[in-house]
Amino acid sequence: MIGTNKTVMNRLLKFQIPKHANWLYTIGFSLAFVFILQIVSGISMAIHYKPSTRLAFLSIHRTDRLFRYGWLVRSLHVCGSSALHLLLYLHIFKGIYYKAYSGSKKTLWLTGSIIHLIMILIGFSGSVLSWSQISYWVTVIVTNFIDSIPIIGKFLRSILLGGHTVCDSTLRRSFVCHCILPFICLIFIIIHLLLVHIKGQTSPVANRLPISRSFEDVYPNFVVKDIIVCIVIMFVIYVLCLICPNIILNKLGYIPVDYYTTPTDVESEWYFLPYYSVLKTFGLKITGIISIIAILSSVAVIPYIYNTKLSNTLTGMYRLHTITTFISLILLGLMGKCKYTKFISKLSKACVLWYLGFVFLPLIIKSFCYLISLILIPKC
Protein backbone atom coordinates (compact mmCIF):
# COMPACT_ATOMS: atom_id res chain seq x y z
CA MET A 1 0.00 0.00 0.00
CA ILE A 2 2.84 2.38 0.85
CA GLY A 3 4.54 1.52 -2.43
CA THR A 4 1.33 2.25 -4.34
CA ASN A 5 0.89 5.63 -2.64
CA LYS A 6 4.51 6.50 -3.38
CA THR A 7 4.04 5.59 -7.05
CA VAL A 8 0.89 7.72 -7.30
CA MET A 9 2.61 10.69 -5.65
CA ASN A 10 5.62 10.38 -7.96
CA ARG A 11 3.26 10.21 -10.93
CA LEU A 12 1.46 13.39 -9.80
CA LEU A 13 4.63 15.33 -9.00
CA LYS A 14 6.36 14.24 -12.25
CA PHE A 15 3.43 15.33 -14.40
CA GLN A 16 4.76 17.37 -17.33
CA ILE A 17 3.40 20.83 -18.12
CA PRO A 18 4.54 23.36 -20.77
CA LYS A 19 7.33 25.69 -19.64
CA HIS A 20 5.38 28.63 -21.06
CA ALA A 21 2.26 27.80 -19.02
CA ASN A 22 0.78 31.01 -17.59
CA TRP A 23 -1.57 31.74 -14.70
CA LEU A 24 -4.58 30.60 -16.75
CA TYR A 25 -3.27 27.06 -16.31
CA THR A 26 -3.96 27.27 -12.55
CA ILE A 27 -7.72 27.54 -13.09
CA GLY A 28 -8.25 23.76 -13.34
CA PHE A 29 -6.80 23.11 -9.87
CA SER A 30 -8.74 26.10 -8.47
CA LEU A 31 -11.96 24.72 -9.95
CA ALA A 32 -11.48 21.38 -8.20
CA PHE A 33 -10.67 23.18 -4.93
CA VAL A 34 -13.80 25.39 -5.03
CA PHE A 35 -15.96 22.43 -6.09
CA ILE A 36 -14.88 20.45 -2.99
CA LEU A 37 -15.61 23.56 -0.89
CA GLN A 38 -19.11 23.65 -2.40
CA ILE A 39 -19.75 20.00 -1.56
CA VAL A 40 -18.64 20.46 2.07
CA SER A 41 -20.68 23.65 2.62
CA GLY A 42 -23.64 22.14 0.73
CA ILE A 43 -23.73 19.05 2.97
CA SER A 44 -23.63 21.32 6.04
CA MET A 45 -26.67 23.21 4.75
CA ALA A 46 -28.56 20.12 3.54
CA ILE A 47 -28.55 18.66 7.08
CA HIS A 48 -30.87 21.47 8.26
CA TYR A 49 -32.85 22.04 5.05
CA LYS A 50 -36.56 21.18 4.81
CA PRO A 51 -37.68 20.43 1.20
CA SER A 52 -41.21 21.71 1.73
CA THR A 53 -42.93 24.76 0.26
CA ARG A 54 -44.12 25.66 3.76
CA LEU A 55 -40.75 25.27 5.54
CA ALA A 56 -37.98 25.69 2.91
CA PHE A 57 -37.61 29.48 3.19
CA LEU A 58 -37.85 29.41 7.00
CA SER A 59 -35.35 26.53 7.34
CA ILE A 60 -32.67 28.45 5.40
CA HIS A 61 -33.04 31.63 7.44
CA ARG A 62 -33.36 29.64 10.66
CA THR A 63 -30.00 28.04 9.85
CA ASP A 64 -28.52 31.53 9.35
CA ARG A 65 -29.69 32.77 12.74
CA LEU A 66 -29.77 29.84 15.16
CA PHE A 67 -26.82 27.63 14.24
CA ARG A 68 -23.25 28.63 14.99
CA TYR A 69 -21.65 30.14 11.87
CA GLY A 70 -24.69 29.08 9.83
CA TRP A 71 -24.70 32.49 8.11
CA LEU A 72 -21.04 32.02 7.16
CA VAL A 73 -21.63 28.54 5.70
CA ARG A 74 -24.52 29.84 3.60
CA SER A 75 -22.50 32.86 2.42
CA LEU A 76 -19.60 30.55 1.52
CA HIS A 77 -21.95 28.36 -0.50
CA VAL A 78 -23.53 31.31 -2.35
CA CYS A 79 -20.23 33.12 -3.05
CA GLY A 80 -18.56 29.79 -3.85
CA SER A 81 -21.21 29.12 -6.49
CA SER A 82 -20.38 32.42 -8.21
CA ALA A 83 -16.63 31.72 -7.96
CA LEU A 84 -17.16 28.22 -9.37
CA HIS A 85 -19.03 29.43 -12.45
CA LEU A 86 -16.58 32.29 -13.03
CA LEU A 87 -13.65 29.86 -12.95
CA LEU A 88 -15.57 27.44 -15.16
CA TYR A 89 -16.11 30.08 -17.87
CA LEU A 90 -12.45 31.13 -17.65
CA HIS A 91 -11.38 27.48 -17.94
CA ILE A 92 -13.53 27.01 -21.06
CA PHE A 93 -12.11 30.23 -22.53
CA LYS A 94 -8.54 29.04 -21.85
CA GLY A 95 -9.26 25.68 -23.48
CA ILE A 96 -10.74 27.23 -26.63
CA TYR A 97 -8.11 29.99 -26.83
CA TYR A 98 -5.18 27.54 -26.70
CA LYS A 99 -7.02 24.77 -28.66
CA ALA A 100 -6.81 22.30 -25.77
CA TYR A 101 -9.16 20.02 -27.74
CA SER A 102 -6.74 19.44 -30.64
CA GLY A 103 -5.17 16.13 -31.58
CA SER A 104 -6.09 13.18 -29.40
CA LYS A 105 -7.77 15.31 -26.71
CA LYS A 106 -11.34 15.12 -28.04
CA THR A 107 -12.38 12.67 -25.28
CA LEU A 108 -10.84 14.97 -22.68
CA TRP A 109 -12.80 17.91 -24.10
CA LEU A 110 -16.02 15.87 -24.17
CA THR A 111 -15.76 15.06 -20.45
CA GLY A 112 -15.20 18.76 -19.75
CA SER A 113 -18.33 19.62 -21.77
CA ILE A 114 -20.36 17.13 -19.73
CA ILE A 115 -19.04 18.70 -16.51
CA HIS A 116 -20.12 22.11 -17.84
CA LEU A 117 -23.69 20.93 -18.47
CA ILE A 118 -23.94 19.16 -15.09
CA MET A 119 -22.76 22.30 -13.27
CA ILE A 120 -25.46 24.33 -15.02
CA LEU A 121 -28.08 21.81 -13.84
CA ILE A 122 -26.62 21.94 -10.31
CA GLY A 123 -26.77 25.74 -10.33
CA PHE A 124 -30.36 25.85 -11.57
CA SER A 125 -31.64 23.19 -9.15
CA GLY A 126 -29.89 25.00 -6.29
CA SER A 127 -31.48 28.34 -7.21
CA VAL A 128 -34.94 26.79 -6.72
CA LEU A 129 -34.25 25.65 -3.15
CA SER A 130 -34.35 29.05 -1.43
CA TRP A 131 -38.09 29.21 -2.27
CA SER A 132 -38.09 32.98 -2.32
CA GLN A 133 -39.80 35.36 -4.73
CA ILE A 134 -36.86 35.27 -7.14
CA SER A 135 -36.42 31.47 -7.14
CA TYR A 136 -40.14 30.75 -7.55
CA TRP A 137 -40.78 33.13 -10.44
CA VAL A 138 -37.56 32.23 -12.29
CA THR A 139 -38.65 28.57 -12.07
CA VAL A 140 -42.09 29.50 -13.45
CA ILE A 141 -40.52 31.41 -16.37
CA VAL A 142 -38.03 28.67 -17.26
CA THR A 143 -40.57 25.82 -17.09
CA ASN A 144 -42.99 27.81 -19.25
CA PHE A 145 -40.29 28.11 -21.91
CA ILE A 146 -39.58 24.36 -21.66
CA ASP A 147 -43.30 23.74 -22.24
CA SER A 148 -42.96 25.36 -25.69
CA ILE A 149 -40.57 22.65 -26.96
CA PRO A 150 -42.42 20.60 -29.63
CA ILE A 151 -43.44 17.01 -28.85
CA ILE A 152 -41.42 16.53 -25.63
CA GLY A 153 -41.95 19.94 -24.00
CA LYS A 154 -45.02 19.10 -21.92
CA PHE A 155 -43.47 15.79 -20.86
CA LEU A 156 -40.22 17.46 -19.71
CA ARG A 157 -42.14 20.16 -17.86
CA SER A 158 -44.26 17.61 -16.00
CA ILE A 159 -41.11 15.70 -14.99
CA LEU A 160 -39.43 18.86 -13.67
CA LEU A 161 -42.52 20.12 -11.85
CA GLY A 162 -43.95 16.82 -10.66
CA GLY A 163 -47.38 18.18 -11.59
CA HIS A 164 -49.01 20.98 -13.56
CA THR A 165 -47.61 23.89 -11.50
CA VAL A 166 -44.55 24.74 -9.41
CA CYS A 167 -45.33 22.99 -6.14
CA ASP A 168 -44.01 20.79 -3.32
CA SER A 169 -42.97 18.06 -5.76
CA THR A 170 -40.88 20.58 -7.74
CA LEU A 171 -38.97 21.55 -4.61
CA ARG A 172 -38.31 17.94 -3.57
CA ARG A 173 -37.11 16.99 -7.05
CA SER A 174 -34.79 19.99 -7.17
CA PHE A 175 -33.41 19.09 -3.74
CA VAL A 176 -32.72 15.48 -4.78
CA CYS A 177 -31.04 16.62 -8.02
CA HIS A 178 -28.98 19.23 -6.18
CA CYS A 179 -27.74 16.55 -3.76
CA ILE A 180 -27.01 13.80 -6.32
CA LEU A 181 -25.64 15.73 -9.31
CA PRO A 182 -22.49 17.05 -7.53
CA PHE A 183 -21.29 13.50 -6.89
CA ILE A 184 -22.01 12.51 -10.50
CA CYS A 185 -20.05 15.61 -11.53
CA LEU A 186 -17.23 14.57 -9.18
CA ILE A 187 -16.92 11.25 -11.04
CA PHE A 188 -16.55 13.08 -14.35
CA ILE A 189 -14.02 15.47 -12.77
CA ILE A 190 -11.88 12.50 -11.69
CA ILE A 191 -12.13 11.02 -15.22
CA HIS A 192 -11.24 14.44 -16.64
CA LEU A 193 -8.14 14.72 -14.41
CA LEU A 194 -7.03 11.20 -15.33
CA LEU A 195 -7.34 12.03 -19.04
CA VAL A 196 -5.33 15.24 -18.49
CA HIS A 197 -2.51 13.15 -17.00
CA ILE A 198 -2.74 10.62 -19.84
CA LYS A 199 -3.08 13.05 -22.77
CA GLY A 200 -0.90 15.86 -21.34
CA GLN A 201 -1.29 19.64 -21.37
CA THR A 202 -1.46 21.82 -24.48
CA SER A 203 1.30 24.42 -24.87
CA PRO A 204 0.16 28.08 -24.91
CA VAL A 205 2.68 28.70 -27.71
CA ALA A 206 1.13 28.02 -31.13
CA ASN A 207 2.42 24.97 -33.02
CA ARG A 208 4.81 24.08 -30.18
CA LEU A 209 6.34 20.67 -30.81
CA PRO A 210 6.00 18.18 -27.89
CA ILE A 211 9.73 17.94 -27.23
CA SER A 212 11.08 17.31 -23.75
CA ARG A 213 12.83 20.71 -23.53
CA SER A 214 9.51 22.59 -23.84
CA PHE A 215 8.00 20.82 -20.80
CA GLU A 216 8.85 20.65 -17.09
CA ASP A 217 7.62 18.89 -13.94
CA VAL A 218 4.58 20.37 -12.22
CA TYR A 219 6.45 20.30 -8.89
CA PRO A 220 7.60 22.60 -7.35
CA ASN A 221 7.13 25.77 -9.47
CA PHE A 222 3.61 25.25 -10.75
CA VAL A 223 2.29 23.70 -7.52
CA VAL A 224 3.25 26.94 -5.76
CA LYS A 225 1.25 28.91 -8.36
CA ASP A 226 -1.80 26.67 -7.76
CA ILE A 227 -1.59 27.18 -4.00
CA ILE A 228 -1.20 30.97 -4.35
CA VAL A 229 -4.28 31.20 -6.62
CA CYS A 230 -6.36 29.07 -4.21
CA ILE A 231 -5.34 31.31 -1.28
CA VAL A 232 -6.31 34.43 -3.27
CA ILE A 233 -9.69 32.90 -4.20
CA MET A 234 -10.40 31.96 -0.57
CA PHE A 235 -9.43 35.47 0.55
CA VAL A 236 -11.80 37.08 -1.97
CA ILE A 237 -14.65 34.71 -1.00
CA TYR A 238 -14.15 35.44 2.70
CA VAL A 239 -14.04 39.19 2.06
CA LEU A 240 -17.37 38.91 0.21
CA CYS A 241 -18.85 36.76 3.01
CA LEU A 242 -17.71 38.96 5.90
CA ILE A 243 -17.86 42.50 4.49
CA CYS A 244 -20.54 42.50 1.76
CA PRO A 245 -22.39 39.15 1.82
CA ASN A 246 -25.44 40.57 0.00
CA ILE A 247 -23.57 41.84 -3.05
CA ILE A 248 -24.37 38.69 -5.05
CA LEU A 249 -27.85 37.86 -3.72
CA ASN A 250 -30.90 39.51 -5.28
CA LYS A 251 -33.04 41.51 -2.82
CA LEU A 252 -36.02 39.31 -3.77
CA GLY A 253 -34.12 36.38 -2.26
CA TYR A 254 -35.09 37.71 1.19
CA ILE A 255 -38.82 37.79 0.44
CA PRO A 256 -40.93 34.62 0.88
CA VAL A 257 -42.92 33.32 -2.09
CA ASP A 258 -46.03 35.30 -2.98
CA TYR A 259 -47.97 33.23 -5.51
CA TYR A 260 -50.26 36.14 -6.44
CA THR A 261 -47.71 38.94 -6.97
CA THR A 262 -45.28 38.80 -9.89
CA PRO A 263 -42.18 40.98 -9.28
CA THR A 264 -41.27 43.50 -11.96
CA ASP A 265 -37.50 42.91 -11.70
CA VAL A 266 -37.20 39.13 -11.98
CA GLU A 267 -33.72 38.09 -13.03
CA SER A 268 -31.62 34.96 -12.58
CA GLU A 269 -28.19 34.60 -11.00
CA TRP A 270 -25.47 36.47 -12.90
CA TYR A 271 -23.97 33.29 -14.37
CA PHE A 272 -27.31 32.49 -16.05
CA LEU A 273 -27.89 36.03 -17.33
CA PRO A 274 -26.66 35.34 -20.92
CA TYR A 275 -29.28 32.60 -21.30
CA TYR A 276 -31.90 34.76 -19.56
CA SER A 277 -31.11 37.56 -22.02
CA VAL A 278 -31.67 35.17 -24.94
CA LEU A 279 -35.08 34.19 -23.55
CA LYS A 280 -36.08 37.86 -23.24
CA THR A 281 -34.78 38.78 -26.70
CA PHE A 282 -36.64 36.36 -28.95
CA GLY A 283 -40.37 36.80 -29.33
CA LEU A 284 -41.01 33.12 -30.05
CA LYS A 285 -40.31 30.84 -27.09
CA ILE A 286 -39.09 28.01 -29.31
CA THR A 287 -36.51 30.32 -30.96
CA GLY A 288 -35.08 31.22 -27.56
CA ILE A 289 -34.94 27.56 -26.51
CA ILE A 290 -33.18 26.56 -29.77
CA SER A 291 -30.66 29.41 -29.34
CA ILE A 292 -29.84 28.33 -25.77
CA ILE A 293 -29.46 24.67 -26.82
CA ALA A 294 -27.16 25.78 -29.66
CA ILE A 295 -25.04 27.91 -27.26
CA LEU A 296 -24.72 25.07 -24.73
CA SER A 297 -24.00 22.35 -27.32
CA SER A 298 -21.53 24.53 -29.25
CA VAL A 299 -18.80 23.92 -26.66
CA ALA A 300 -18.97 20.15 -27.21
CA VAL A 301 -18.78 20.30 -31.04
CA ILE A 302 -15.83 22.72 -31.32
CA PRO A 303 -13.18 19.91 -31.58
CA TYR A 304 -14.96 18.48 -34.62
CA ILE A 305 -15.19 21.86 -36.39
CA TYR A 306 -11.73 23.33 -35.69
CA ASN A 307 -9.96 20.02 -36.28
CA THR A 308 -7.23 21.28 -38.64
CA LYS A 309 -3.81 22.66 -37.80
CA LEU A 310 -3.69 26.44 -38.30
CA SER A 311 -0.80 28.57 -39.50
CA ASN A 312 0.62 31.27 -37.20
CA THR A 313 -1.38 33.97 -39.03
CA LEU A 314 -4.65 32.04 -38.79
CA THR A 315 -3.90 31.17 -35.15
CA GLY A 316 -3.73 34.89 -34.34
CA MET A 317 -7.06 35.48 -36.10
CA TYR A 318 -8.59 32.47 -34.34
CA ARG A 319 -7.52 33.75 -30.90
CA LEU A 320 -8.83 37.24 -31.66
CA HIS A 321 -12.16 35.76 -32.72
CA THR A 322 -12.21 33.70 -29.50
CA ILE A 323 -11.78 36.86 -27.40
CA THR A 324 -14.53 38.75 -29.26
CA THR A 325 -16.84 35.73 -28.94
CA PHE A 326 -16.49 35.66 -25.16
CA ILE A 327 -16.93 39.45 -25.07
CA SER A 328 -20.26 38.92 -26.88
CA LEU A 329 -21.24 36.43 -24.17
CA ILE A 330 -20.35 38.99 -21.46
CA LEU A 331 -22.43 41.62 -23.28
CA LEU A 332 -25.36 39.18 -23.35
CA GLY A 333 -25.06 38.84 -19.58
CA LEU A 334 -24.98 42.61 -19.07
CA MET A 335 -28.05 43.04 -21.29
CA GLY A 336 -29.84 40.42 -19.17
CA LYS A 337 -29.90 43.05 -16.38
CA CYS A 338 -31.18 45.83 -18.64
CA LYS A 339 -34.79 46.70 -19.34
CA TYR A 340 -36.11 45.30 -22.61
CA THR A 341 -35.94 47.81 -25.50
CA LYS A 342 -35.66 47.49 -29.29
CA PHE A 343 -31.97 48.47 -29.17
CA ILE A 344 -31.21 45.91 -26.44
CA SER A 345 -33.12 43.28 -28.41
CA LYS A 346 -31.16 43.92 -31.62
CA LEU A 347 -27.83 44.01 -29.77
CA SER A 348 -28.65 40.73 -28.00
CA LYS A 349 -29.50 39.06 -31.31
CA ALA A 350 -26.23 40.35 -32.80
CA CYS A 351 -24.28 38.90 -29.85
CA VAL A 352 -26.02 35.53 -30.24
CA LEU A 353 -25.27 35.46 -33.98
CA TRP A 354 -21.64 36.43 -33.39
CA TYR A 355 -21.20 33.71 -30.77
CA LEU A 356 -22.85 31.02 -32.89
CA GLY A 357 -20.97 32.26 -35.96
CA PHE A 358 -17.66 31.44 -34.25
CA VAL A 359 -18.76 27.84 -33.85
CA PHE A 360 -20.91 27.08 -36.87
CA LEU A 361 -19.53 29.38 -39.60
CA PRO A 362 -16.51 27.11 -40.34
CA LEU A 363 -18.90 24.16 -40.56
CA ILE A 364 -21.12 26.03 -43.03
CA ILE A 365 -18.08 27.06 -45.14
CA LYS A 366 -16.75 23.48 -45.19
CA SER A 367 -20.16 22.13 -46.22
CA PHE A 368 -20.47 24.80 -48.94
CA CYS A 369 -16.97 24.04 -50.32
CA TYR A 370 -17.75 20.33 -50.30
CA LEU A 371 -20.95 20.88 -52.29
CA ILE A 372 -19.11 23.12 -54.78
CA SER A 373 -16.44 20.46 -55.26
CA LEU A 374 -19.11 17.83 -55.95
CA ILE A 375 -20.72 20.08 -58.56
CA LEU A 376 -17.53 21.25 -60.31
CA ILE A 377 -15.55 17.99 -60.35
CA PRO A 378 -16.80 15.98 -63.35
CA LYS A 379 -17.85 12.42 -62.77
CA CYS A 380 -15.63 9.74 -64.29
TrEMBL record:
It is a multi-pass membrane protein. Binds 2 heme groups non-covalently. Pfam families: Cytochrom_B_C, Cytochrome_B. InterPro entries: Cyt_b/b6_C (IPR005798), Cyt_b/b6_C_sf (IPR036150), Cyt_b/b6_N (IPR005797), Cytb/b6-like_sf (IPR027387), Di-haem_cyt_TM (IPR016174). Keywords: Electron transport, Heme, Iron, Membrane, Metal-binding, Respiratory chain, Transmembrane, Transmembrane helix, Transport. Residues 208-377 form the Cytochrome b/b6 C-terminal region profile domain. The chain crosses the membrane at residues 21-49, 69-88, 108-128, 134-155, 175-198, 218-243, 282-306, 318-340, 352-377. Residues 1-205 form the Cytochrome b/b6 N-terminal region profile domain. The keyword Thylakoid does not apply. Its cofactor is heme b. SUPFAM superfamilies: a domain/subunit of cytochrome bc1 complex (Ubiquinol-cytochrome c reductase), Transmembrane di-heme cytochromes. The keyword Membrane applies. It is found in: Membrane. Belongs to the cytochrome b family. The main subunits of complex b-c1 are: cytochrome b, cytochrome c1 and the Rieske protein. PANTHER family: CYTOCHROME B (PTHR19271). Component of the ubiquinol-cytochrome c reductase complex (complex III or cytochrome b-c1 complex), which is a respiratory chain that generates an electrochemical potential coupled to ATP synthesis. This is Cytochrome b. The gene is fbcH.
